[in-house]
């Protein structure tokens, strides 16, 4: 499954045009991380920023489509990929996040593809080492 993320690459990141569903999925995974009781240190390990910075990124995602710096896109990617790992049950993930784990991974891949092509030049990985 592949999810297309519309983006225009800029000097420091990308102008992301996220759909309402994409925004919701990203915000739900960010909120999952914000709700964790283990504090800022664990948040930094999981998604690369403390809770306050994550809230700022979430507000940016919730608002109109705008430019994201690469470090902010990394926060989105990290939230999308780490939440399914932390909630290994598909049923529990769906109940908590409102989407399927596969959708989170697909959107994370879409973010990477939107920023630049993969090793084959078309965003797909060949599997070659």
Please tell me how large the radius of gyration is: 14 Å
Can you summarize the main beta sheet? 3 strands, antiparallel
Strand order of the largest sheet: 1-2-3
Q: What percent of the residues sit in helical stretches (DSSP H or I)?
A: 55-70%
Q: Secondary-structure element order, as H and E? A: EEHHHEHHH
Q: Quote the distance from N terminus to C terminus.
A: 22 Å
Structural class by secondary-structure content: mainly alpha
Overall strand count: 3
Number of helices: 6
Overall geometry: globular
Low-pLDDT residue spans: 118-129
Q: What's the rounded overall pLDDT mean?
A: 88
Strand composition percent: 5-15%
What does this structure look like?
The chain is 59% helix and 9% strand. With 129 residues, the chain is mainly alpha-helical. It has a three-stranded antiparallel beta sheet. The C terminus is likely disordered.
Name a few traits of the molecule.
single chain; 129 residues; mainly alpha; three-stranded antiparallel beta sheet; globular; disordered C terminus
């Amino acid at each position: 499954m592949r999810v297309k993320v519309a983006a225009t690459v800029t000097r420091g990141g990308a102008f992301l045009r996220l759909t309402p569903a994409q925004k919701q999925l990203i915000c739900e995974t960010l909120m999952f991380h914000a709700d964790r009781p283990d504090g800022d240190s664990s948040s930094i390990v999981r998604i690369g920023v403390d809770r306050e910075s994550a809230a700022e990124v979430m507000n940016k995602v919730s608002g109109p489509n705008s430019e994201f710096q690469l470090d902010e896109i990394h926060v989105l990617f990290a939230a999308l990929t780490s939440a399914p790992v932390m909630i290994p049950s598909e049923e529990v993930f769906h109940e908590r996040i409102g989407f399927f784990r596969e959708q989170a991974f697909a959107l994370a891949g879409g973010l990477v593809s939107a920023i630049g092509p993969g090793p084959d030049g078309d965003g797909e990985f060949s599997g070659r080492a």
